[in-house]
């Protein structure tokens, strides 16, 4: 990194320990731009990773719904077959009732005791045939109701399949949009590099350092208000502050060296006068 750019980031770190100002400097704007770029890149990455998972979930859901729809279709077919069978059974009971009625009439014309026995058997058969026909009609009604419910279920499953197709299409659109947004962010990063002359890793490191600087300043301000804690504070922070002050001094020397570089006219005049 060149000396002027390094000085800009030193200024950012220095301003991190000062109260917030209403005006923004170019370095603050560069940091905000890189921070926004990082957030956008993370969001695009999450969207790009989530779109395939959503498509897989929609595919599994669609397969499950198709299986349920096929089973509902099989149930509807079985219900239709059961309705036909129950209808035939009802017809058989009706015929049996007619036969029993004819047998009763024949028993009424037959002399005793054979006629009476035939009449009693005929009445018993007619009674059971009527009960069987009623039960069969009830069964047919239940099966028809079940078939209607199955038909409604298949309609609902068809709607679910259509919604799954729409969701899958939206997921594919989201994935394509995430890919296009990723490509656009790469272009944005290139333009930001040329406009700011700063690497994104450096920007993130400076932003993190500024955040820690604010936290350190707040903690030191709190501890400074407590007079008895100052000797303990100095002894505890000396191992940390010593390398930190050395590092800041080196950065400051590099900044001043960049300001008084040999290529500048002021540096050449100053060297001649000394």
Features:
Methyl-accepting transducer domain-containing protein; rod-shaped; transducer; single chain; 6 helices; 274 residues
Mean pLDDT: 76
Span of the ends, CA to CA:
30 Å
Oligomer: single chain
Principal-axis shape: rod-shaped
Which bin fits the share of residues in helices? over 70%
Count of individual beta strands: 0
Task: Report the sheet-strand fraction.
Answer: under 5%
Structural class: mainly alpha
Tell me what the structure shows:
By secondary structure, this protein is mainly alpha-helical. The two termini are 30 Å apart. It has helices spanning 3-16, 26-109, 114-196, 200-224, 230-259, 265-273. The protein is built from six helices and no strands. α1 runs antiparallel to α5 and α2 packs antiparallel against α3 (114-196). It is rod-shaped, with a radius of gyration of 45 Å. The longest helix has 84 residues, at 26-109.
Topology, pairings included?
Blueprint: H1 3-16, H2 26-109, H3 114-196, H4 200-224, H5 230-259, H6 265-273
Provide a compact summary of the structure.
This protein has 274 residues and is mainly α.
């Amino acid at each position: 990194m060149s000396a002027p750019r390094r000085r800009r980031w030193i200024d950012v770190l220095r301003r991190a320990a000062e109260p917030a100002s209403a005006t923004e400097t170019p370095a603050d704007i560069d940091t905000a731009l890189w921070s926004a770029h990082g957030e956008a890149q993370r969001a695009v990455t999450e969207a790009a990773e989530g779109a395939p998972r959503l498509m897989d979930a929609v595919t599994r859901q669609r397969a499950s719904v198709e299986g349920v729809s096929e089973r509902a279709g099989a149930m509807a077919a079985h219900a239709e077959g059961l309705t036909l069978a129950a209808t035939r059974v009802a017809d058989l009971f009706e015929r049996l009732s007619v036969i029993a009625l004819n047998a009763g009439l024949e028993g009424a014309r037959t002399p005793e005791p054979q006629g009476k026995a035939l009449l009693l058997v005929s009445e018993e058969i007619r009674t059971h045939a009527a009960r069987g026909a009623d039960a069969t009609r009830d069964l047919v009604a239940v099966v028809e109701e079940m078939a209607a419910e199955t038909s409604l279920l298949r309609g609902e499953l068809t709607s679910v399949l259509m919604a799954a197709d729409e969701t899958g299409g939206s997921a594919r659109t989201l994935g394509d949009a995430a890919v296009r947004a990723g490509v656009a962010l790469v272009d944005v990063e290139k333009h930001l590099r040329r406009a700011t002359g700063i690497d994104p890793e450096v920007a993130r490191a400076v932003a993190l350092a500024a955040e820690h600087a604010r936290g350190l300043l707040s903690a030191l301000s709190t501890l400074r208000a407590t007079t008895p804690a100052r000797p303990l504070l100095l002894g505890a922070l000396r191992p940390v502050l010593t390398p930190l002050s050395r590092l800041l001094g080196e950065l400051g020397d590099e900044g001043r060296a960049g300001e008084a570089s040999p290529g500048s006219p002021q540096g050449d005049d100053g060297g001649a006068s000394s």
